[in-house]
Amino acid sequence: MSAHSVYLEDDCRFEYNREDLVARLGQVLANPEALITNEEALRAYETDGLAAYRQLPVAAVLPDTVEEVQAILRICNELEVPVVARGAGTSLSAGALPHPQGILLSLSRFNRILDVDAERRVARVQPGVRNLAVSEAAAPYGLYYAPDPSSQIACSIGGNVAENAGGVHCLKYGLTIHNVLEVTLVTIDGEVLKIGSEAPDAPGYDMLAAIIGSEGMLGVVVEVAVKLLPEPLTKKVMLAAFPTVEAGGEAVAGIIGDGIIPGGLEMMDNAAIRAAEDFVHAGYPVDAATILICELDGSEAEVAAQCAQVSKLMESYGATEIRIAETPEQAQAFWAGRKAAFPAVGRISPDYYCMDGTIPRKHLSTVLNRMQALSEEYGLRVVNVFHAGDGNLHPLVLYDGNVPGELERTEELGGRILELCVEVGGTVTGEHGVGMEKINQMCAQFSPPELEQFFALKRAFDPKGLLNPGKAIPTLNRCAEFGAMHVHKGELPFPDIERF
Amino acid sequence: MSAHSVYLEDDCRFEYNREDLVARLGQVLANPEALITNEEALRAYETDGLAAYRQLPVAAVLPDTVEEVQAILRICNELEVPVVARGAGTSLSAGALPHPQGILLSLSRFNRILDVDAERRVARVQPGVRNLAVSEAAAPYGLYYAPDPSSQIACSIGGNVAENAGGVHCLKYGLTIHNVLEVTLVTIDGEVLKIGSEAPDAPGYDMLAAIIGSEGMLGVVVEVAVKLLPEPLTKKVMLAAFPTVEAGGEAVAGIIGDGIIPGGLEMMDNAAIRAAEDFVHAGYPVDAATILICELDGSEAEVAAQCAQVSKLMESYGATEIRIAETPEQAQAFWAGRKAAFPAVGRISPDYYCMDGTIPRKHLSTVLNRMQALSEEYGLRVVNVFHAGDGNLHPLVLYDGNVPGELERTEELGGRILELCVEVGGTVTGEHGVGMEKINQMCAQFSPPELEQFFALKRAFDPKGLLNPGKAIPTLNRCAEFGAMHVHKGELPFPDIERF
What we know:
Two copies of one chain form a homodimer.
Chain A: H1 18-28, E1 35-36, H2 39-42, E2 59-61, H3 66-79, E3 83-86, E4 103-106, E5 113-117, E6 122-125, H4 131-138, E7 143-144, H5 157-163, H6 170-173, E8 180-186, E9 192-196, H7 208-211, E10 220-227, E11 229-230, E12 234-242, H8 245-257, E13 264-269, H9 270-280, E14 290-298, H10 300-316, E15 321-324, H11 328-339, H12 341-348, E16 351-354, E17 357-358, H13 364-378, E18 382-386, E19 392-393, E20 395-399, H14 406-423, H15 442-445, H16 448-461, H17 476-481
Parallel strand pairs in A: 2-4, 3-4
Antiparallel strand pairs in A: 1-2, 5-6, 6-10, 7-11, 8-9, 8-10, 12-14, 12-15, 13-14, 13-18, 16-20, 17-19, 18-20
């Protein structure tokens, strides 16, 4: 697959002596293996989960302690060197793509669970801890950590914080922002800040939400306190088949509209059902136009009542078949196909492009139908498997990167799909972040005064613009270049705004 | 009652021509009654819900439109005039106390409900709309707005946003921050920003949380989009009496520890029970050391199951009596005493000082007992009626402002109570904000780099420090003066930090 050239000249204005940088980094890292400058070894960091974007950094550092992170950032601040922090590198929006003039700061050695306090229901973990490992550590106490991105076996809590990760259960239990209580942040000048609190309404400006989802552009998180929830007393998983995409979409809106918030409410279209069934043999109804997987959780009485209510609703929206898992094994089978859907699609196409848009639930059927028409127009298959309950679509566009022009056509189709999301009142990013992938689209998303306020906030944390430059919030030069902002006679609309 | 002199010289460094200011304000306000400079009329604004603090502003303005707010802020920005925004003026921490050199910006004419969208479950309202009016407007659709501060008949949504207000139901349904989707903010330089989104994870830095609870120090909110929730299918209210304060406190920790999140879980001590009973004759057990009022909501089945579980728990913690409301009238009676508790206390004492601390639930009984000892030590009665479920205490210290020295002794006792909260791992502010009341205590709450980061954030929104100066986040001069920060040889610890 061909890789993109993505950084603009404007993103690459850093001048410093590379040998000096490497020498000084070496002085502050106790472990000689914590500093990587060898090109072959650096290849491990040149891309993240969005493999279409590749870039080698100048060096990679793997600090072991907070003090080392402080020392690294102080050096970078002094020499004006870009810093891209990286967790497990599973970002789907190139959020951890290295900067060509910068260092890659891996948090992989920050992999300890520091404390699980069952009474306060709080776990304190380092950012390199895997998402699933938190729930595993909490399980002996009957507790778990709610956000569960598809990559939860691999992705790190630090990366989850950077991208405000969601998952199947975020419909009921919220995104990362709703499940993190406090972070310890090292600022670019090496100060350590505690941001957030275990208390419900801590004094001071609430900066936690600004940090979460900021894609490493405001500081480097070195510790995270997360909320643990009690395991639901009981769970029930249902699978319903619908004869049309419309019926499935309307059932989703109907369930939520009736006041039920399921633990998870996922939708798969026929292409996804078939791909998953071929791969894991979950026993899915392969002739259904669409299936819904609905997980209800709570007390026995609550779940039984909701289960009856949801069944009745699904019937009223035309479900041709409703299955209710009677054993944990059956429940697991219902989920197996959904969880294996992405790799299953990987088996039927050389490449696929995973998108991430949100739409108001009531427009689900319209959008799915129009996406089908776009798929036919471009001659590219689109597979849909997504978080229907919160209107978070993940269309997978199937293509072959070795066929000349197919990646470009895929990206064009992707652009049309995202325009469709915006047209019905949605957004172009659900839970995967902006990173480098969607940076140009952000020029249209924000008004100039909004961008100006973002820059002001950025400067409040990172006055020299060294943290993950070029990501998440577009510079005015980028917006001028990509034509999304109105430029008069070659001049930028805000010549007085400082740039990054 | 004697009023405090609270602004420091450092807060009052503004120099401008008052006549020029008034003339220019007059030019931008269409309605001549929208500009108040007459001292008698200004008295209406000299204090808020914390009457111990009084200050007349230079002028008050009551704009009718967003354009007028923009024009007012542009004038204040140009002339460098402090601006204190005010909703209904019910703040209990003097958050809306006028600045002696500033204007008071009343949002009382921004009192329209712009839209109630039942399908999207969103209401768009102006900031001067009363909290309860939102639920009233949503009621025909079976929806309501969850945060319900005690002052909900009077307090405004704009004030709720400024203080991140809570209420009885915030245990289950969250604070204002969890129920606001988007705000429209006018910046000090007159720009209009949309901050937040109806989408689950909007792109860009998440600045909404920083705005909510920022006490009008980052901008002026002129529109708020709030989340509406479906009315619970059913509700059950229970009242349980306990023979000791310990037993009640332990029952609270036990209920939450057992995985139940009630819609509300309130506690009243004997003094509060008696005061309320004398006032509204709710039929409370006046010999109980403490009562718990527990509201359970959800589906029929869920509520019935939880009700049985809570009853059993309360019995196991020694409840001497458990009543379950069988009719809406009974439920209302259980709540009547709690809701009337503050005015009831007002009947038995010339003055009272309402405090607002949080503690970990497990320390409830310890703190209540030690508070009793402190009350005896100071010879001042302390009445407790509070949000037990989330550990948010509201001790009411009873005093007589006409007895020389009694206010001072009350404040000293208040300080000791807050120290006690901090000692057990709590905070000195729960849901009433910092305002002017707790500003000095904030010097101890934050580390110098944390304060520095707050100042940087403040500058990103308000470079000249004009919005509500002197509140919420203490200046370094204030901290030096009040001794909470270490000062060497008369120098501030951070001479290089810009000041407000």
